[in-house]
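Request: Show me your protein:
***
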Amino acid sequence: MFNGSRKYSPLPSSPSSSRASSSSSSSLPAAPRRSPRALQRHSSLLSQYSSLLESYTEGEIRQLISALVERYSQAMNSGGHELPLFPRAGSRRKRARARHKPCALKELEVSVSELGLGYESDETVLFRYCSGTCEAAVRSYDLSLKSMRSRRRIKKEKVRARPCCRPLAYDDDVSFLDAYNRYYTVNELSAKECGCV
């Protein structure tokens, strides 16, 4: 498909190859010389694409081009600046939407050992936690704190310039037996209500 469409000047490897190529392409203007490294990278990439496209039928190539043109026109009509040609762009948008889910209560069934509190037990508990963002709960305090940090008026202290999704209330105490049949009770383990603090 790409054969003969563009010729590159050969590498100065052997005199016989340069004589053969100069006689075959004497009617064409001399192409600018490139460094061997750049030429090698470009020609290997070109050969990869040409071998890839040669494996497709003409109908498949037409379908590919029409799909790309259709996506391009959809992006331009919707006011998009980036072309949605690759599935990665969609996954980036999905991740961005996932980052802006409101603060909410979630739950997970885990063993007591997985809680990281130092207890060895195979008993399972329902662990409720808070997850989400608090963009809608930004107050004047948060905006002013962010401004003071950007102006370097507050330098060394570790301060958070936005509200955080945290438990507002906790579930009842959780009791369990450990691996040595000892009885324990843990308080304020599982969230009952979440909010932006």
In short: Residues 1-26 have pLDDT under 50 and may be disordered.
